Amino acid sequence: MCTVTYLPLSISSFILTSNRDEGQNRKIALPPEKYTVYGTDVYFPKDTDANGTWFAVEKTKFTLCLLNGAFEHHEHHPPYRLSRGIMLLDFFKYNNVSDFLFHYTFEGIEPFTLLVFEQSPTSGIQEIRWDENKIYSAKKDASAPLIWSSAQIYSKNVVQQREEWFDAWLKAKNEFTIENIVRFHKTGGTGNSENDLHMNRDGKVFTVCSRKTTMQNFWQLGIHNFWQQGMQNM
After folding, report:
1. Contact criterion met (CB below 8 Å) for 53 and 44
2. Are the CB atoms for 66 and 18 separated by under 8 Å?
3. Distance of CA 159 to CAs 4, 146, 193, 215, Å?
């Protein structure tokens, strides 16, 4: 996952939209399905490289999004002990974020940012970052619109620029609808294909899909994919 936006609609509902940027050699992922994970029904697209995921929804409580990198670009040094996508699914072994942070073993996992959106009893957002040395956790304001970009793919300057695009979109008084935020994910930017929200770096790394999830009243769940023309990868 490389770009994520969050739009609060009420105390118990929000729209979460994401773009996934991947390399041209990444295997085709499977569309979202319901799987049983540690005794819990979880909806997610499956990455066929490691059978993990970057986006998962347990519709009564948690929605999780995974971004590559923690705070800045890092060197890739495989092999790693465990896939980040498997780590995300392991979250569902625990009752809450605190138990996950305290008991889980993060050593041997490539740097990541994990976003945890909690729907019950009131909305809450936990931002978890792992830099291969230390785990960091911060609570974000669930009443405010938010945007995240992958620290592995985008420099700090570009991340800040994307925040400015999002801020301008908000100041334009766009209504918080699925159509409007998906349009932003497809067209946001300055025309620089390397760093626009819908990005393409010479066909080597590019946006392969967008995904939107709506959570309403804890029980109503909607997951939709927006496939890019001519691409089958997720």
Report:
1. yes
2. no
3. 12, 12, 15, 26
Q: Are 185 and 209 in contact (CB under 8 A)?
A: no
- On the question of a cis peptide bond just before residue 111, with omega within 30 degrees of 0, the verdict is no
Question: Do residues 205 and 198 touch, judged by C-beta distance below 8 A?
Answer: no
Helical (H) or strand (E) element with 99: helix 97-103
Element containing residue 167 per DSSP (H, E): helix 156-171
What are 22's strand-pairing partners?
206
| Gap between the Cα atoms of 57 and 64, Å rounded | 6
Output the six-digit token pair for 213: 């999830």
Rounded to whole angstroms, the Cα distance separating 160 from 156 reads 6
Strands (E), 163-204: 200-201
- Check whether the bond before 121 is cis (ω within 30° of 0): yes
Q: Which residues pair with 57 in a beta bridge?
A: 43, 63
| pLDDT tens-digit series, residues 108-157 | 999 999 999 987 656 689 999 999 999 999 999 999 999 999 999 889 99
The predicted-structure confidence for 13-65, as pLDDT tens digits, reads as follows: 888 988 876 556 667 778 889 999 999 999 998 988 889 999 999 988 899 99
Strands 135-140 and 124-130: antiparallel
CB distance 19 to 198 below 8 Å: yes
Structure tokens at 182: 């998906």
* HSE-up of residue 106 (Cα within 13 Å, Cβ side): 21
Distance CA 18, CA 6 (A): 9
Q: Which amino acid is at 77?
A: H
